[in-house]
């Protein structure tokens, strides 16, 4: 069992940067593959990116590639979503998620693949 607690986010102007953190607690929290998703009202949750348990593999949605970076500090059991060059269309509630992976290099793209979720963090980008 792992608990995910998110922090960061907020309101910024277009072009600004923001970082959201996701701290995991519980048994072997650093052994989980992690993902980030976002959701706007009335729409399905959207994949943003994912990182392997080892931290050596990551993947991003086309809409954020080159602007967002996921990293992890396993010593602190924390995963970070660094968001640069933010756009108004990035406005959403952002969720981190965790899954026990098949291998240390495995990453997952589907919402249904993840077992644990953070509480969500609002990110609002004004034009």
Question: Descriptors for this entry?
Answer:
127 residues, mainly beta, seven-stranded mixed sheet, 11 strands, 0% helix
Give an account of the 3D structure.
The protein contains no helices and 11 strands. It has 127 residues and is mostly beta strands. The chain is globular, with a radius of gyration of 14 Å. The strands form 2 sheets. Strands 2, 4, 5, 6, 9, 10 and 11 form a 7-stranded mixed sheet that branches. Strands 1-3-8-7 form a 4-stranded antiparallel sheet, with no helix packed on it.
Structure described in brief:
By secondary structure, the protein is mainly β. Helices cover 0% and strands 50% of the residues.
State the distance separating the first and last CA atoms: 40 Å
Q: What's the overall geometry?
A: globular
Given helix and strand content, the structural type is mainly beta
Order of helices and strands: EEEEEEEEEEE
DSSP, total strands: 11
- Mean of the pLDDT scores? 95
For the largest beta-sheet, the strand count, sense and barrel status come to: 7 strands, mixed
Total helix count? 0
Strand content bin: over 45%
- Which ranges are low-confidence, i.e. pLDDT below 50, for 5 or more consecutive residues? none
Estimated helix fraction? under 10%
What would you report as the Rg, rounded to the nearest angstrom?
14 Å
């Amino acid at each position: 069992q792992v608990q995910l607690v998110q922090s960061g986010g907020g309101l910024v102007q277009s072009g600004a940067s923001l970082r959201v953190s996701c701290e995991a607690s519980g048994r072997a929290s650093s052994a989980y593959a992690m993902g980030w998703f976002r959701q706007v009202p009335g729409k399905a949750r959207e994949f943003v990116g994912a990182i392997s348990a080892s931290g050596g593999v990551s993947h991003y949605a086309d809409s954020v590639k080159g602007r967002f970076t996921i990293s992890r500090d396993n010593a602190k059991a924390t995963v970070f979503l660094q968001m640069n060059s933010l756009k108004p269309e990035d406005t959403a509630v952002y969720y981190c998620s965790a899954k026990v992976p098949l291998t240390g290099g495995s990453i997952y793209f589907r919402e249904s693949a993840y077992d644990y979720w953070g509480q969500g963090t609002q990110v609002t980008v004004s034009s």
